[in-house]
Design goal:
23% of the residues lie in helices and 35% in strands. With 379 residues, it is of the alpha+beta class.
Amino acid sequence: MNNSKIYWEDLGVTVEISAFEPGDHVAEYHVMLHVDPQHDLFDGQLERIYKAEERLFSLPQLCEAKTVFKRYFLSDATNQEPLMKNVTDCSVSVIQQPPLDGSKIATWLYLQKGTDVENINDTIVVSHNGYRHLWNMGMVSNEGDSAAQTTSLLQHYENTLQSFGATLADHCIRTWFFVRDVDTQYAGMVKARKEFFTEKGLTEQTHYISSTGIGGLPADTKALVQLGAYALTGFEPQQQRYLYAPTHLNPTYEYGVTFERGTIMEYGDRSHVFISGTASINNKGEVVYVGDVVQQTKRMWENVSTLLEEAGTTFDDVAQIIVYLRDISDYEIIQELFRQKFPTIPTVFTLAPVCRPTWLIEMECIAIKEQNNEEFRDF
């Protein structure tokens, strides 16, 4: 992984880039954009972010890249989302998870070079070498409670996948559930997801799906849950493995939730590792270091490191990190801890309560590692 950082002084924007560029093969880039507040209102910060997005393609390594998806982290989604552009050439998620650097907006972008990217009925489809990568971000429903909305979203997503000859059980690799008022609404989402998964044949005896379930406010005030998902077709079942780290973590079904700790997708030329939202937990399902955000951070790192190791990777292969904090006042000390340990990995810190009130911090990440595996087709 080749990481770099640029500061565009005229825009007041910091650009963090991780680049996976394996010779003549498909290149992948994760980019985090951070804007200096500069006492701007949202429209001023948004305009500078948009200009930075455009300028990315003037960089030699990105001049031929295509954007697959963007996630905008906003400080007030209900009032800010209507001011944003309607984008159709990539998948977009807009969620209220305020950036903790004092700005009103931050952006995570995922780009590729060497693939075909198109919008087919609001699904971003990335095609290459017999694979089809399906990206559906920012899905919401606004009727009923969190359980009803979750069921509606999952059924809509299943219908979408079926239109591509896919199913949630066989082809979905990664999901994100952003829940309004997670302390009270999370339980409804968990119940509905479990029931829907059971109906589709996903049980503790089969498998679940890597996921993050975290606090986040959709722009629509009636929407209690926002769903984002990534699926893949054209792969062999043995290309996908699930990560457990049993020395450090327990199966999630033991405390009533239904997701995998991590997933590795293996290709001929690389592997992708998707680490679910991970916090300070032990292999009995207990929160570790209650009330101590520093020790929770260190245990969280240990858990993630163990999952990465199981996948044959390390933090050196990590392309991006999202950090979710419950308490805004913890930001400075946590940001410094991350700066010391991971100074070059593109990272965004947001205000987003974790699904248990005693968890003070959670993180997720994606790793990419070069491989030479003749058993599978290249990415």
